[in-house]
Model the fold of this input.
Amino acid sequence: MIDFLNYLINGSLVGLLYALIAMGFIVIYRASKVFNFAQGELVVFGGFIVWWMVIETGLPLVVALPLAMLLSALFGLIIERIFFSRLVGESAFAMVMVTIGLLILIRGLILVMFGPQVRPFPVIFSLKPVIIGDVLIPRSLLVGAVITVVVGLGLSWFFNNTRAGLKMTAVAEDHQVALSMGISVKRSIAFAWALGAVLSTLGAIIYLSGKSLNFLASDIGLAALPVALLAGFESIAGVLLAGLIVGAIQGLVTAYVDPVVGGAVGSVFPFVIMLVILFIRPTGMFGWRTIERV
Amino acid sequence: MDPAGIFATSFARDAALVRTRPQQIALALFLVFLLLLPVLFGPRLLAISTLILILSVVTLGLQITTGYAGQINLGQAAFMGVGAYTTGFLATKLGLPFWLTIPLGGCSAAVFGFIFGLSAVRIKGFYLALTTIAAQALFHFFVLNLPWFGGSNGLTLDPATLFGFAFVTDTSIYYLCLAVAALMTYGAYGIVRGRFGRAFVAVRDDDVAAGIMGIDIVATKATAFLVGAFYAGVGGGLWAYFVRFVAVDQFTLFNSIWFIAMIIVGGMGAITGALVGVVVIKCIQEGFVSLGPSVVSQFPSIGGDVVFALMNVFLGSVIAAFLIFEPRGLMHRFDILKRSYRMWPFPY
Done:
């Protein structure tokens, strides 16, 4: 029983971490209607910025972390300025394909700037686990979960209740309509990429704290996809619930099915969930019902 | 558009692929060049050429799925892997000859692709792309966990044999790949200008309008995946006989992304575009790989891995630049050039 509780809670917390990464997808989708395949590379890039600030230049954490966020926001803005500001009015297809080009490009940039070696990531949250009763919880995941929930609810409020957020939502509905309503699509996309990059850096900090880092860490971007899909691509608060569900299921499957089958069912299971969602309810739990069916 | 003075006087003439005398000569010269290539080039260039032929087959499939039918496919490497593993399995465990294993590899890949293409029943656009990512993940899982594929050790193949002749040397395997690639290219031309190809283009351009015109959209999309995956599987089979070793990390999501890059650069919606894209991207990659060591020896301060990374930076920018400045790729540029040459001195 206590094992079950352990797996359940840890799985859910990992799920919330996925939710934070998935939020990066959703924010960019929600404000620009672009599905960003390069999300995992953004996470790794953010991670390397933090590593460079803390380990290489030796700044104290209090200075380094906000500075890293600022730098990654700047990186997001640069991406928007170079690529996406030229593509306003083009088809969504072209924009999404550009993110595939970005994936290759950012991976190359990471290799040029930081090399392929495995780097130690700074310990940001103490490695001592939190122990409640008999349940053992890694501190970084617990703190991360709190941050995720706060950020998720905050962003959800921002996108659904403020004037600026609703403007961006209009951009996600339709670029042409948004333009004709006097909304700046360009500014919305710029904001989306800055925010997406910052969220990715935040995700990297929680995900990598005390672990090692190299360019292969970008796989987490794909692992977060089922979460974003289960929530529906437009719902920011929904992604928290979706993260809990996917994480808990994955945790339990890893614990109880993997030893039986003798393979990594846990790591592939989210994709099975994803396929099932796509077949049964492509809009996810909270997505807008605007998917055109044929 | 045909040059001035060329008029089709019969249906056969109108349907012909090669339409003018200069085109016939160019095609003949190109084929002679391909046949003589092992004599002209050294072993390294020959190996690269063989690789280009194999990748051409796979990219042709992606061109049909993505370029013609407009279905984004991020699982082409997985489909190729299914073909390679099927070929490897049939050849090593059952001892079937290559002229059976390669088509069967194509068929098994086609079935695998068809299953994921079926999700087009419910969804479209980028959601469909996500199912192909799932295909990639599931492929890895199944290969590593099913007992028949050697797990993480991979499969090692014997060379292909035909009437006692073994395709061991680089030259012989080159001719095998050339024959298959030529056949598949001819087939691709046949598909895209026939009934199915027109249905693909109609669905790509506007699926609602296509449906109103009486095209079965779901069947068309699923067929596009079927054909594209079949090409990938055949390419995978060739790969298995070329490398004679099949491992799961030869078919990653990153490889799928490279295939997409190839059709973007070459030009979407043109069979020649796929071939041009493969040649251009592969030549740039190999150029970086072979020039890299001499650059490093000139400037020892940059490490060897930086050159490889720079290649990614360069190609990533090339893809983005093509999408921004010329979304229809190199072939479209070439067509514009050809057209204005034929029109000259008139503007239109």
Notes: Residues 87 and 94 of chain A are 8 Å apart (CA to CA). Chain A has 13 helices and four strands. Chain A has a mean pLDDT of 83. Chain A has one domain: 2-221.
